Amino acid sequence: MSTRRRAVLVGAGVLVVAALIVLVIGSYRHQVSVQRSDDPRSTTAEGTRALAQLLTDEGVRITTTDDVDTAIARSDQRTLLVVASPDLLSDEQAAQVGGATYARLLLLRPRAAALRAFGLPVDQSAPAVGTVDPGCADPAATAAGAIDPGDFRVGYASQAGAVALRCYPAAGGAGWLRVGGPFGPVDLVAGGVSNDLLAHQGNAAFGMNVFGTQPEIVWLMGRSAAVTASRSGAGPTLLPAWWAPAVVQAFVALVAVGIWRGRRLGPILHEPLPVTVRAAETVAGHGRMYARIGARDRAAEALRAGVRDRLGRVYGHRVSDSDGVLALSAAVANRTGRPAPEVARLLAGPPPGSDDDLVTLAAQLDRLEQEARRL
Prior knowledge:
By secondary structure, the protein is an alpha/beta fold. The chain has 2 domains: 20-231, Rossmann fold; 279-374, no CATH class. Helices cover 49% and strands 14% of the residues. A 7-stranded mixed β-sheet has the order 1-9-2-3-8-7-6, with helices on both faces. The two termini are 47 Å apart.
């Protein structure tokens, strides 16, 4: 195989490996992105894929995004803007979301940080336990009936004057609260719509009635990286998003080039000598090494190969396989009077079983060569 062709094949292999790595990383990132709590793409127990599917079957269009600007751009007067994990938003992002255009704004599982960021006059309360009845006259709640609040983390309590709707009460708070804020009415939902609980009690009807009031939903997932940068005062990372797969690709390319250009270990004793030495010293050195490692088979083959090559040149026989050995043995036997099988055994027989046998073989080969050359 030519060097150019080898280079093309290596390059193609590197590209294939790099493409596979990029696909794996992309798939991994996608899997990670859809395993978050309250994500309508997630099929985990904490996700909301089941609710999203029910709403989609009813004709509701759902757009999921992690970017605040994208959520604001896609919201209009026909949109329910759902903010999942709102505690991950900074104060500036909360103000952006609150000031956007939408039909309704719903915060899913907000805690104290989100309540403060959105400027809502609401405090956390203890979450409800056991089956909870609607406790209000709102048609969405009364049609759903009792729900299982097994995934409630907190409840919401507010001053009576600020509350427009208070359903599913427990422990001084409520699981669904609509309260006035700086940007208008905001719905606070403590949960009850996760995949794990949607089939319990009236949870599915509750989720459909509360989240299905508009023909379109923009579902904004908060991002912890944005919160960390905003609240710690740190700037954005200086590394681009593609740096990790680029490093992996560079490493693969480096390994491939190293294998391609690296020196291959050749057969024993076939490397050229670094300096010119006398032939006798080379032979003696090889002999001592063979003796040290007990390589009688290699030593015997080296002796036989030398005799075959020299006699082959004398008798005009090219010895490259067993047929060549038989032809040379017949020619030598004809000239020396030795039996052809005996000559063949000396030129290409089994390896000696001991050092003494190796010495005897060397003497016999030397005698055979002298006889074949003398006649």
